[in-house]
Amino acid sequence: MTIQWYPGHIAKAERALKDQLKLVDVVLEVRDARIPLSTHHPQISQWLGSKARLLVLNRLDMIPAGARKKWLSWFEEQGETPYFTDAQQGKGVREVAKAVQLAGVEMNQRRRDRGMLDRPVRAVVIGFPNVGKSALINRLLGKRVVESARRAGVTRQLRWVRISEQIELLDAPGVIPSLLKNQENALKVAICDDIGDASYDNYLVAVALVEYIKDLEYMAEFGLFPATPLKTRYKLDSAPFTGEDYLQALADFRYKGDIERTSRQLLHDFRKGVLGAIPLEFPPI
Ligand SMILES: Nc1nc2c(ncn2[C@@H]2O[C@H](COP(=O)(O)OP(=O)(O)OP(=O)(O)O)[C@@H](O)[C@H]2O)c(=O)[nH]1
């Protein structure tokens, strides 16, 4: 199957991102906690060079507590400290601000060592489309300044905002272009709607979602997944079906055989959390 991006948009987004990165000392890289690996861009560390980076896993509310614990220990094993946030509710945001502040203290220490004066640390929030960057910026600001768009891929002009005496933040987030050669990652990103300007087939993406759910359902036993989320929501058990057959059966059972509508409904329910807290990735073993 194919998920297509518009190459012009990707090149433009990449240039805009690099311009933003030049301006800052600290980068807050936001990923989707449901798919922390698929919302990682392989070139990030190359783009950042020696700049400080803070890893934020947003949509904390959309994964079970057990999955969060697993990711925490996995990232720590990799030598990284993930900050988990629910940017919609403001959870975990204070800890992120503290970490930026600390990066500023370290930066100013280095400046003083070189005989320079202190200055506020400059930061930017970056991430794939729709992962919650604007929501995080708003929470860091403590008020609604940046429009938190419901549609993917919305950007604005650059402006600095003060979030404390010591921190200046670019009010517009940097959008990481979803250049995804790996179709499995691309599918997960499409399922989660972290995809921006892309065209894809709702039906194929919905089938993939059903298949992921069927594959991961056994994790409910370990508290890492909701029990039978499809059966609970639609009163139609997915166990006897393949992904394609389930969508057809569900369309026949509930949506007058309309498979496109069924696909859209399923994706909508997943994205709104109606199916429960459903992680689509777990740490590699
Ligand atoms: N459930 C949940 N929803 C969130 C969270 N963070 C953001 N959202 C919602 O996700 C949608 C996208 O959030 P935005 O902040 O606009 O995302 P963005 O990354 O700035 O998006 P673009 O500007 O399109 O790249 C909005 O509907 C937010 O309300 C979260 O932690 N949990």
Automatic annotation (TrEMBL):
GO biological process: translation
Pfam families: MMR_HSR1 (PF01926)
Top-level taxon in the UniProt lineage: Bacteria
All copies of domain G, residue ranges: 123-187
Binding positions (GTP): 58-61, 174
Keywords: Cytoplasm, GTP-binding, Nucleotide-binding
Example of a GO MF term: GTPase activity
GO cellular component: cytoplasm
Record keyword Aminoacyl-tRNA synthetase present: no
Subcellular location: Cytoplasm
Main localization of the protein described in the UniProt heading: cytoplasm
Known function: Required for a late step of 50S ribosomal subunit assembly. Has GTPase activity.
Family affiliation: Belongs to the TRAFAC class YlqF/YawG GTPase family. MTG1 subfamily.
Protein name: Ribosome biogenesis GTPase A
Species annotation: Limnofasciculus baicalensis BBK-W-15
Phylogenetic placement of the source organism: Bacteria, Bacillati, Cyanobacteriota, Cyanophyceae, Coleofasciculales
